[in-house]
């Protein structure tokens, strides 16, 4: 998947370990009934240390126009004023207020802003370290209706799968 306008920095909260994304391996996929899309153009700053979660944080922005469906008509419709309205709401953002340990990894607690609506969310994720860097993987379910996005036959429930491989910089 092309990473578009990818800019991601991961800084170890203490010790200044810097990680860089493996851009051509970053994948953000959104699925639901009649929906199968990918998002590119991630711009994120991540501060993460498993040993210092109190100083860990996530801040990410994705350009709405970077969404890609299987065909041009679906893509055009998704960014139109009938759904995401990229002209008036050009970005999707997430900002964490806390990062905590969880039974199966970690959780980033924060706010997700889509279509001019901001909602609190908890993003469960794992970090798998490797000698060369590691990989963040998160999954969550969202209701598009919570963000006043679209109408019609498409499922209101969306599954979002996020994979961000990183390397030591």
Explain briefly what this protein structure is.
The protein has 169 residues and is mainly beta. Helix content is 5%, strand content 54%. The protein has a nine-stranded mixed β-barrel with strand order 1-2-11-10-9-8-7-6-5.
**Helix/sheet category:** mainly beta
Instruction: Estimate what percentage of residues fall within beta strands.
Output: over 45%
Q: Report how far the terminal alpha carbons are from each other.
A: 22 Å
Shape: globular
- Average pLDDT works out at 84
CA radius of gyration: 16 Å
Describe the 3D structure.
The chain has 169 residues and is mainly beta. It has a single domain (7-168), classed as Lipocalin (Beta Barrel), CATH 2.40.128.110. 5% of the residues lie in helices and 54% in strands. The protein contains one helix and eleven strands; from the N terminus they run ββββββαβββββ. Strands 1-2-11-10-9-8-7-6-5 form a nine-stranded mixed beta barrel. The protein is globular. The model is unreliable at 1-13 (pLDDT under 50).
Tag the structure with descriptive keywords:
single chain; 169 residues; mainly beta; Lipocalin; 9-stranded mixed β-barrel; 1 helix; 11 strands; 5% helix; 54% strand; globular; disordered N terminus
How would the blueprint of this fold be written?
Blueprint: E1 7-11, E2 18-21, E3 27-32, E4 35-39, E5 42-47, E6 57-63, H1 72-79, E7 91-102, E8 105-114, E9 117-129, E10 133-143, E11 157-168
Parallel strand pairs: 1-5
Antiparallel strand pairs: 1-2, 2-11, 3-4, 3-11, 5-6, 6-7, 7-8, 8-9, 9-10, 10-11
